[in-house]
Amino acid sequence: MHRTRISIKGVGAIVALAAVAALTGCFGNPVEQLVEDAAENQAQEVIESIAEGSGVDLEVGGELPADFPAEVPLIDAPISVATAQETDSIRMWALGMTPDDVPAAMQEARQMLLDAGYSEDMWSETGMLQGQFANGTYSVGIMAMEDTVAYNVILQR
């Protein structure tokens, strides 16, 4: 999987993230691989042209941001996307992790946060499986999405 470290702005981040994620699959056919490589390079150029100075750090393909808080327990699953953002008023990290069993991983994430001393501010199994937790330092939201467990971590200032 291709890893890119870039800066991107606002709504463009969502569009760019979706484009990169859609273009990072593996193909067995060599012709399809050539097409994929060209499309991925083009997507990277588009993202980089949107970039410069926004304060968003995007990792595609598997690594936590270097300053991700160790106090936030994570499930054991591959990281598909990781972002970090800091502004004058907020420090935030967002992760997409791809476990084999999303509902079981959500329950595991919930229990890990509770065991680490986080309070459960909200848990919902109606509609979308999601939860919100806090420990006085961090607010952690987790959400199940198709094949992904998404984490949203905010430093409470």
UniProtKB/TrEMBL annotation:
It comes from the Bacteria. This is Lipoprotein. It comes from Agrococcus baldri.
